[in-house]
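I am writing to request your help with a piece of structural work I have in hand. I set the record out below, with my sincere thanks for your time.
___
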Amino acid sequence: MEHFVITIGRYCGSGGASIAKKLAKELQIPYYDKNLLRLASDDSGISEELFSHADETLKRSLIYRISRNVYHGELIPPESDDFTSNQNLFNYQAKVITQLARESSCIIIGRCSDFILRNEPHVLRVFICASEPSCIAHEAARSHISKKEAETRVRRFNRRRKEYYKYYTGQTWDDPRNYDLCLNTDSLSIEQCVAQIRQLLGQ
C-alpha cells in the first residue's frame, strides 16, 4: 500500500503515543498529535490559543457532557458570529486532518480522526488499550509521579477523551466496532504492537 493513514486512539498510559512515534520512525512518515492545533490555526487564521482554550473550556462544561454536536463536515464562514465557536474550531481541525490524510501517508493520534476519516480510503483505525492498573503504573513511571497521582490523571484523561469523542461523533470512544484493530499492551509489547500494525499494512 503506497499511501496509507494510521489513526490511533488510546487509553492514557497504554503506550499509544510510544507506538505512534516508533511507527513513524520505522515507516519514515510524520505523526500528528497536538500539533494539529497549530496547523488548524494556520489554515483558519484563528489564534492557536483559541483552539487550546476551546478544548479546555469544553472539557469543563456540563453541556458538553450531556449534549451532542456530531461533526458533519461543514465549515462556518468568517463573517458568521459563530466563526470562532467550539464547533467551528473542531471543524477546522477535521478539515486539516482530512487534508493531511489525502496528501501523504501519516499517523494521526486522537482528535476523533478515526471518525473523521471513516469514509476515506487506505485508513487503518487502531485503538490501544490496557488494564487500568497497567496504565497507572506506566503513567507513573513515564511522568515520574506517584501512583495516586497517575491514577487520577489516567481516569481524568480517559473520561475527557470519552466525552470529547461522544460529543463530536455520537459514538462510544473505546467501542472496538469503531476500529479495524485493537491491541492490548498488557499482553503485547510496544515492538509487538508496531509489528502487528506493519504486518496488517503490508509494510
User: Anything to note?
Assistant: The two ends are 8 Å apart (CA to CA). Residues 58 and 64 are 6 Å apart (CA to CA). The first helix runs from residue 16 to 27.
